[in-house]
Amino acid sequence: MKPQVLQLNPILIPAVNDKLAERYTVHKFFEVADQAAWLREHGASIVAVTTGGHTGISRAVLEQLPKLKVVAVNGVGTDAVDLAYCRERGLPVTATLGALTEDVADLAIGLLIAACRNLCAGDRFVRGGQWELYPQPSAIPLARRFSGMRIGIVGMGRVGRAVAVRAAAFGCTISYTDLRPMEDVAHRFVTDLLDLARDADALVLCAAADKAEGIVNAAVLDALGPRGFLVNVARGRLVNETDLTAALVAGRIAGAGLDVFVDEPRVPLALRQSDSVTLQAHRASATWETRTAMAEMVLASITQALAGERPAMSLTT
Ligand code: 8YV
């Protein structure tokens, strides 16, 4: 009998799914109607789990998988997995470190340009036929220039650094905040997020969420101010979404580009109705190139763990 793998989130790459199915019996948990009953019956036979970065796996489910040898996260964020518990159990939790850096940084810049230049509102204006009805240039408000902006990066890890490289190519001035200054980063470090926001035309959130929930609140948004933009490609929980919605609706910040939300896939109506916001459905890593690389890493982690090796991408063992 082949080893039993529990797949909590779909992997969208057919070639990798084929390889998984050749080597393992893969159970698609997301298609199971009564998951509690399924776990009671089959939990003890599962030796590997794959899941998504922001969806993770609950401790309650982990506790029902006594023979588990690896949790292979198809993502870079592991904030939705109880790492301390997995460490105690000696259970490797792997992530797709480095695989999605470039794509996430690309989307951050894309969202920022879209927000500054009102790309989505402009698209709706043309698509909806309003241009023909209101051809005078004053029908569309002037936008803001992205090149040369002062960018405040929150979280100078892999993604933050890749955003800095791109923004620098646009002539932007870059400052950042993190838990501590990074010796190998030449940009200006700012300890306090309020100060970073005050000095920035745009804040770009690239931080892990575990130690930073709700850090972007009304005070930070007011420090960013009515000409400031917010971009979030990290986790929705970094932002107080109620404060953000209120600030956008009242014009206390100029606009936002958001790929992530507090309660995905639910997005507050006021955000969906606002022309100052560009929205994406948590798709920063969703390219063929990156998702293929990520899926291959998941497969490698499972293969290594089930061969009795320490997976190269393990964060806990
Ligand atoms: C993915 C992510 O959407 O890497 C992460 O932490 O949130 C995203 O890249 C997700 O992991 C896909 O399963």
UniProtKB/TrEMBL annotation:
Taxonomy, superkingdom: Bacteria
UniProt KW NAD keyword: yes
GO cellular component: a single term: cytosol
Domain D-isomer specific 2-hydroxyacid dehydrogenase catalytic: start-end pairs: 44-312
Entry GO MF terms: glyoxylate reductase (NADPH) activity; hydroxypyruvate reductase [NAD(P)H] activity; NAD binding
CDD domains from the UniProt entry: HPPR
Keyword DNA repair recorded: no
Record-linked InterPro entries: D-isomer_2-hydroxyacid_DH, D-isomer_2_OHA_DH_cat_dom, D-isomer_DH_CS1, D-isomer_DH_NAD-bd, NAD(P)-bd_dom_sf
Any one Pfam family match given in the protein's UniProt record, by short name: 2-Hacid_dh
SUPFAM superfamilies found in the cross-reference section: Formate/glycerate dehydrogenase catalytic domain-like, NAD(P)-binding Rossmann-fold domains
Residue ranges constituting the D-isomer specific 2-hydroxyacid dehydrogenase NAD-binding domain according to the UniProt record: 109-284
Residues making up the signal peptide according to the UniProt record: none
Record-stated family: Belongs to the D-isomer specific 2-hydroxyacid dehydrogenase family.
Protein name stated in the entry: Dihydrofolate reductase
Protein's organism: Rhodoferax koreensis
